[in-house]
Specification:
The protein is an alpha/beta fold and about 750 residues long. The chain contains 20 helices and 27 strands. Strand 15, helix 19 and strand 16 form a beta-alpha-beta unit. The chain is globular. It binds beta-D-glucopyranose (BGC).
Length: about 750
Amino acid sequence: MKKILLGLLGLTALTAMAAPLTEAEIDAAVADLIGKMTVEEKVGQLNQLSGRGLDPGMVALVAEGKVGSLLNEVDPATVNALQRQAVENSRLGIPLIIARDVIHGFKTIFPIPLGQAASWNEDVVRQGARIAADEASSVGVRWTFSPMVDIARDARWGRIAEGFGEDPVLASRLGVAMVEGYQGDDLSKPNTMAACVKHFAGYGAAESGKDYNTTWIPEVLLRDVYLPPFKAAADAGAATFMCSFNDINGVPSSGNRYLLHDILRDEWGWNGLIVSDWGSIEQMRNHGFSRDLREAALQGAKATVDVDMENYAYTQHLADLVASGEVSMDELDAMVANVLRLKYKLGLFDNPYVDETAVAFYAPASLDAARRAVEESAILLKNNGVLPIDFNAVKTVAVVGPMADAQHDQAGTWVFDLEKEHSVTPLMTLNEKWGKKVKYAKGLAHSRDRKHDGFEEALKAAQGADVVLYFAGEEAVLSGEAHSRADINLPGAQKELLRELKMAGKPVVMIVQAGRPLTIADDAELCDAVVYLFHGGTMAGPGIVNVLSGEVNPSGKLPVSFPKMVGQLPLYYNHKNTGRPAEGITYIDDIELEAGQTSTGCTSFFLDAGDGPAFPFGYGLSYTTFEYGTPRLSSAEIAPDGSVTVVCDVTNSGSVAGSEVAQLYVRDLVGSLARPVKELKDFQKISLQPGETKTVVFNLPASSLGFTNLKNEYVVEPGDFQLWVAGDSASGTPVAFAIK
Ligand code: BGC
């Protein structure tokens, strides 16, 4: 609009510098446009289809104004050709928005979100999203279906890969950073993408970790655990939300007016665009919630789902629903306004086309950033001193395993735009740096391979080496959407291959690349060191090798608890204490024959897995050691509307520089509802030289110490609390304070 005004004044050249439209200007323009639209054109704006190139049917639909946005169209020439149909040939010239699942990079692939979460570093996440936006917007993608901020407490769920783990505070902070990276400070700049916060809500609570499964989430849990990252992203200005596939307590999200309208829009005051998930409106028939597509369309519209992604529910039934009065014109207009507002915000009315000559991927700085993200995401789970490896000193290194040279699989899930030839693998990096010392024997053709044919060669390589690098893990396709697993051991014959390698009697370093926590506790016991990397993307090789060589000191921390056995799931650190917390654990092999029923004690543990995780939330080692002082509080009492300053000295007590994530946990000892044994409230990542001490300072407002009661009210209750500042969720000595 400003362009038109400036154009009339002969100032078109200034448009690049024109200030973005104000909210009021956008609202006025949207109202004006809606006033000119037919019902069919309005419904068209709500219709999102998957790209079919320049298929004549698609071209006609766009030219008739029957499509508002397209996903999965990434060829800039095609994008422009379709945009021309919308802008120049449709009656009102409303531009399309081009959307894509750009989840952890477009071409330069960053670690999967769960890996980025292991960095506990908002800068890493923000920068990754910025680079993704630069690359994807260069082909015309201006809307990404990311970040996914679903809390996941169950490693069986394949989509645990796509989120930031199990904790609401960590997921909130990183989700906001991702939104900021995509959207920048001004969405109208052509190198931005609108974020889409998904999946609203509770999708990660899928029963038994099976994708799309039912969820039962009491409102207090929903509000205290599942919703906070969504609220944080809404407050940060995320432009769009996507509703989830699952039903919560019987109501599918796509028809859940309470969630979408009452909570998201009314209670939180968020006024963006809600898109359905792919087919999630029409799938309400399968849920047994809608009699037919017409009713599904009605339920979707009433729930305030604005955009219909590949359901054909709105295109087929919305006009009729408006004609019958079941959906009012005001309701329809509100949906259309949300779409048009986004188009204005993105500057698409002024700059609908993408510059086909400016497509840019894999900038050296982007690859560097991707490598650093890997370095910060790698988690050292165990080290008996074999790491770091002085590659100059060792004579021969055996490199074994299906993930040592897996250009496709190291990229992880959701990489529709991957060009795998750009992936640099650990083997490639090792060969480049110390090629003469590397003896490679794959051992297994791929992660699921059950054949032992390659074992002999692998053992031989191990026998002739000073150290064995065993690259284990999961292929990309074993995690992600619709890729849940009920057995989360290393797949195929990888466990057996590790045991074979052990026979060489050489130090074994296991490097796991996977999309989820795997049950590797018994494998880890056999190894001298274990490094865990959630699929690391394009630069997984250089990043991981820098960690192995000590060029980079690992600083990743687990964003999820690692189970010992799959049967422990769901597993999360912020659980309740129960009336009989674990005590005097007796394991199955220690039970006497015909022992009495109560002989193992009657407390809360598993006879085979004991209690607690293999590796706790927040855990991760370093090549140095950190010592924590006792946290000091500005006051041992806080008013319910006050706050306390917590300071804690952290010392690098080892001999190399390193980074540490200082984590602040709190326990509310007694509540009107039983409270979790620990809850993360804040964290800071700091770097320390050997011998250096830094004082971390946290401001802890009492308002962050409340919870939702059974009346759905957020309450901060007076009472006694404990507080820890520690390097993971299972260590530290508590300090007492009270809210009075
Ligand atoms: C997924 C979404 C994704 C959408 C579009 C769905 O199957 O659940 O996360 O954004 O497809 O590709």
